[in-house]
Design brief:
- The chain is mainly β.
- The chain has one helix spanning 106-111; strands at 3-7, 10-13, 18-25, 32-39, 46-52, 57-60, 68-73, 78-83, 92-100, 118-119, 123-128.
- It has one helix and eleven strands; from the N terminus they run E-E-E-E-E-E-E-E-E-H-E-E.
- Strands 2, 4, 5, 6, 9, 10 and 11 form a seven-stranded mixed beta sheet that branches. Strands 1-3-8-7 form a four-stranded antiparallel beta sheet, with no helix packed on it.
- Strand 5 (46-52) and strand 6 form a beta hairpin.
- The mean pLDDT is 96.
């Protein structure tokens, strides 16, 4: 059974930091693309960042470049999203998702959620102004 368990959300002031964790099981972690997506109230889901575990390729949405960093610990089957300089507009439910990594597809493919076959329950991040 595939499981993606997201954690680490919470309430933080603007300018603060949080680290989200996604613990994965039930699929080949080393061959996966694993990413973070978010959905704010009344808005569509947005791809935040994806990492390809085969070669460490990282993709970021323009809105988070320079502030968010994705990383993967293959020994722990866990992907992290370090978020700094948080803004109120980062407030959303953050979801962890995974799929098979296909090289050459690019950021548009993965950040749109294509190929993400497995989705976990979200963790809420609230950034106060």
């Amino acid at each position: 059974e595939v499981q993606l368990q997201a954690s680490g959300g919470g309430l933080v002031q603007a300018g603060g930091s949080l680290r989200l964790s996604c613990a994965a099981s039930g699929f080949s972690f080393d061959d996966a693309a694993i990413g973070w997506f978010r959905q704010a109230p009344g808005k569509e889901r947005e791809g935040v960042s994806v990492i390809g575990n085969r070669d460490g390729t990282e993709y970021y949405a323009d809105s988070v470049k320079g502030r968010f960093t994705i990383s993967s610990d293959n020994a722990k089957n866990t992907v992290y999203l370090q978020m700094i300089s948080l803004k109120p507009e980062d407030t959303a439910v953050y979801y962890c998702a995974a799929g098979y990594f296909r090289g050459g597809r690019g950021s548009d493919y993965y950040l749109a959620g294509y190929g993400m076959h497995y989705w976990g329950k979200g963790t809420l991040v609230t950034v106060s102004s």
